[in-house]
Design goal:
By secondary structure, this protein is an alpha/beta fold. Helix content is 45%, strand content 23%. It has a 5-stranded parallel sheet with strand order 2-1-3-4-5, sandwiched between helices. Bound molecules: magnesium ion.
Length: 123
C-alpha cells in the first residue's frame, strides 16, 4: 500500500478524496487542514506521498512542501489546486512537487498521479 497524507482545508474535498481512493492501493494515513499541521504530520507519519492543497490558511502549500522536503526529501508531494495558472504550477514544481492535480478531478486521475508519484506500478 502507498501511505498518503491528505492536506486540504476543505472537509468536503478530503471526503471526496477518501471516496476516490476507496478500493485502491492507497491508504490515507492522515489528514491535515492547514500548512503547519501538514508539516507536523508529514514529519511524524513519514507518508510515501503527500497530496498538498496549495491554498491553505496560515502557511501555504508551497511553503509547507519546502519544509516537508527539507526534512524528508524522499517524500513525494503531489500539488493539489483549483488554480492551474502557469505561475502556480511553476511555484509548485520549484518547491519540489513531483506532479500537479487540478480540482475538480477524476478518481482514476488522482489514483494514477499518486501511484506515479510513489513510483509503484500496479498492473
Ligand atoms: Mg484550499
Amino acid at each position: 500500500m502507498i501511505r498518503l497524507l491528505v492536506v486540504d482545508d476543505a472537509p468536503f474535498i478530503r471526503e471526496i478524496v477518501r471516496h476516490a481512493l476507496r478500493g485502491s492501493q492507497i491508504e490515507i494515513v492522515g489528514e491535515a487542514e492547514d500548512g503547519h499541521e501538514a508539516v507536523a504530520m508529514a514529519h511524524k507519519l513519514r507518508p510515501d506521498v503527500v497530496l498538498m492543497d496549495i491554498v491553505l490558511p496560515g502557511k501555504s502549500g508551497i511553503d509547507a512542501t519546502r519544509e516537508v522536503l527539507a526534512v524528508n526529501p524522499a517524500i513525494r508531494v503531489v500539488a493539489f489546486s483549483t488554480n492551474d495558472h502557469e505561475t502556480v504550477v511553476m511555484k509548485a514544481i520549484d518547491a519540489g512537487c513531483s506532479s500537479f492535480i487540478v480540482k475538480p478531478f477524476q478518481a482514476a486521475e488522482l489514483v494514477a498521479a499518486i501511484e506515479q508519484a510513489a513510483q509503484i506500478k500496479i498492473a
